[in-house]
Design a protein that fits this description.
About 70% of the residues lie in helices and about 0% in strands. The chain starts with a helix and ends in a 16-residue tail after the last helix. It is an all-alpha fold and about 160 residues long. It contains six helices and no strands. Helix 2 packs antiparallel against helix 3 and helix 3 runs antiparallel to helix 5.
Length: about 160
């Protein structure tokens, strides 16, 4: 519930930010739709504006999730560097005490698996615009990795053979 709630809160904040910053093109389409309201072509113009708004929102939210995942990957990479004895390579020096707690040499494989999972989910955003569901699943799989469990190596939603 914690991961799901966190993802929901982040998704909602990104949705609100995307809605608050429409492009000039979307503003133009909305003006055209308003001018044609109740006239011939009004419904088409309104649909065109709505479609553009959905595309923009999806793109902005997905870009936001990409930034979140890039940050998560960066911190995991720092923990991996600490686990390998390369503290000088750490980019987030302010996190060094916490990175030392989680960056033990015996955690190296788990950290590598976490990084791989983050990158797999990031790449999956191009396949499916429901980034929040990808991230929610990823958080569950990262928790499994940290607990020492193995995770399935196929993409979420992939068709099974057989």
């Amino acid at each position: 519930a914690g991961a799901s709630g966190l993802v929901h809160d982040i998704q909602q904040a990104m949705d609100e930010a995307a809605a608050a910053h429409p492009s000039a093109e979307l503003e133009q389409l909305r003006q055209e739709a308003a001018a044609l309201e109740g006239k011939r072509g009004g419904k088409t113009a309104a649909k065109k504006a709505d479609d553009q708004a959905r595309r923009e929102r999806r793109r902005l939210v997905t870009e936001g999730w990409v930034h979140v995942l890039d940050g998560a990957a960066s911190v995991h990479a720092d923990a991996l560097a600490v686990s390998m004895g390369a503290e000088r390579a750490v980019r987030h020096e302010e996190l060094l005490p916490r990175l030392r707690e989680v960056g033990h040499p015996e955690q190296r494989v788990a950290l590598e698996d976490c990084l791989q999972e983050i990158q797999r989910v990031r790449a999956g955003f191009g396949l499916n615009p429901l980034a929040d569901l990808w991230v929610e699943g990823m958080l569950d799989r990262l928790a499994m990795i940290r607990q020492g469990s193995s995770i399935p190596r196929r993409s979420p939603g992939a068709l099974t053979s057989g």
